[in-house]
């Protein structure tokens, strides 16, 4: 087991900077997940940690030791890829044993480790099979076993579940979570799947164009995103964004005027000294729809019924859609008009640079006639 430290790590491919001054400290035994849009540098960052790419500038430390110039083997790292990359002509046993043999472990150690690894991953009944006689989930477990068997200090995963169908993904995700609990090893995991990130991570690193947008627990990122980018990236369906004019109100927070509606005071410290354009953010579960009494309001253009809940899609004047998450039992219909409300305590506000306003020390929502959006 080992902690990992990145200190101002940069990576260039030619003149293109792909990783931009990334610093972070990953604790011993921590499960950290890298997320971000396609091309943001998640895999590159993982490969830099693994030693499969060289760091252009900056330092990588494992257990407080600089490892920039060490090979993957010398770093004590095991890696699991999206494509399982098993040797097709080798049995499960031989696949798991491969790295150990390469490291010249004696026969008895190899046998003990393979059997122990197979037991943890519930592969003990499959040791003699070839990869082609395994399901996708079983193959991925063999790939994890192969990485685990050498007892690396750190396990890295690059989208390991992408090739599995939905049911197997859930199952294997659970297995990885249990494996982490059992082994207690440091794990770093790349995914573009939100659910994987939220459910597996002790902490999530959100990357954007090669730099770190925010690092935090899943709850911190969901409830207190530091930027509009993180707010829009974490959460499904996405947070709703509405352009507003915001006015700082001394001691009270920040008053927003929502077009063609009323005003609301949000318990957030507004950074600008005077009225300024800003973006209001409200998650779908915090928008409260109610039937319009006078034909005003927004039209429901689609209802998605998901069994346990339903999503209402509402069209704004500018053609943009807002999403409301409601109970499946709600009776809203397509074509109906609704007015919206929200609790200011659950609202987010981002300045023109996309930075989130910090909450005031006290959180209660404040006065004003109840504003509704239409
Ligand atoms: N060997 C390489 N040479 C040049 N550019 C590269 C190389 N490897 C990656 N890149 C570029 O670096 C950027 C980051 O790639 P990377 O694979 O790390 O992104 P990612 O976030 O993992 O994306 P995805 O989710 O699509 O896998 C991309 O713009 C990619 O084109």
Automatic annotation (TrEMBL):
Superkingdom per UniProt: Bacteria
GO molecular function, one term: ATP hydrolysis activity
GO cellular component terms listed in the entry, alphabetical order: ATP-binding cassette (ABC) transporter complex, substrate-binding subunit-containing; maltose transport complex
Xref: SUPFAM superfamilies: MOP-like, P-loop containing nucleoside triphosphate hydrolases
Domain ABC transporter: 4-234
CDD domains: ABC_MalK_N
InterPro entries, sorted: AAA+_ATPase (IPR003593), ABC_transporter-like_ATP-bd (IPR003439), ABC_transporter-like_CS (IPR017871), ABC_transpr_MalK-like (IPR015855), ABC_transpr_MalK/UgpC-like (IPR047641), Mo/tungstate-bd_C_term_dom (IPR008995), NA-bd_OB-fold (IPR012340), P-loop_NTPase (IPR027417)
Gene3D superfamilies named among the record's database cross-references: 2.40.50.100, Nucleic acid-binding proteins (2.40.50.140), P-loop containing nucleotide triphosphate hydrolases (3.40.50.300)
Keywords recorded for this protein, A-Z: ATP-binding, Nucleotide-binding, Sugar transport, Transport
NCBIfam families per record: PRK11650.1
PANTHER family associated with the record: MALTODEXTRIN IMPORT ATP-BINDING PROTEIN MSMX, MALTOSE_MALTODEXTRIN IMPORT ATP-BINDING PROTEIN MALK
Name of this protein: Carbohydrate ABC transporter ATP-binding protein, CUT1 family
């Amino acid at each position: 087991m080992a902690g990992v430290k990145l200190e101002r790590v940069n990576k260039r491919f030619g003149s293109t900077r792909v990783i931009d001054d990334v610093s972070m400290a990953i604790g011993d035994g921590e499960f950290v997940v890298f997320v971000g849009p396609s091309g943001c540098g998640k895999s590159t960052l993982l490969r830099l940690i693994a030693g499969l790419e060289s760091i252009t500038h900056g330092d990588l430390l494992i257990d407080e030791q600089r490892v920039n110039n060490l090979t993957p083997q010398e770093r004590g790292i095991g890696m699991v890829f999206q494509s399982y990359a098993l040797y097709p002509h080798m049995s499960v046993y031989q696949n798991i044993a491969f790295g150990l043999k390469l490291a010249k472990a004696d026969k008895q150690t190899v046998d003990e480790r393979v059997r122990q690894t197979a037991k943890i991953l519930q592969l003990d009944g499959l040791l003699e099979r070839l990869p082609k006689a395994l399901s996708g989930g079983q193959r991925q477990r063999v790939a994890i076993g192969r990485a685990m068997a050498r007892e690396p200090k750190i396990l890295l995963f690059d989208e390991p579940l992408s090739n599995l169908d939905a049911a197997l993904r859930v199952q294997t995700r659970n297995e990885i979570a249990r494996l982490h609990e059992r082994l207690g090893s440091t794990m770093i995991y790349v995914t573009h799947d939100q659910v994987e990130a939220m459910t597996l991570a002790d902490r999530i690193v959100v990357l954007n164009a090669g730099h770190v947008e925010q690092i935090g627990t899943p709850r911190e990122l969901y409830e207190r995103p530091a930027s509009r980018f993180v707010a829009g990236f974490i959460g499904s369906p996405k947070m709703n964004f509405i352009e507003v004019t915001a006015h700082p109100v001394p001691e009270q927070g920040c008053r927003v005027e929502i077009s063609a509606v009323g005003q609301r005071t949000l318990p957030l410290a507004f950074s600008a000294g005077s009225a300024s354009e800003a973006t209001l953010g409200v998650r779908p579960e915090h928008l409260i729809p109610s039937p319009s009494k006078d034909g005003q309001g927004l039209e429901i253009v689609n209802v998605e019924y998901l069994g346990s809940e339903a999503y209402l899609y509402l069209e704004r004047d500018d053609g943009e859609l807002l999403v409301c998450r409601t109970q499946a039992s709600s009776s809203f219909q397509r074509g109906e008009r609704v007015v919206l409300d929200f609790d200011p305590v659950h609202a987010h506000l981002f300045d023109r640079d996309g930075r989130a306003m910090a909450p005031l020390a006290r959180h209660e929502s404040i006065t004003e006639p109840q504003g509704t959006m239409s």
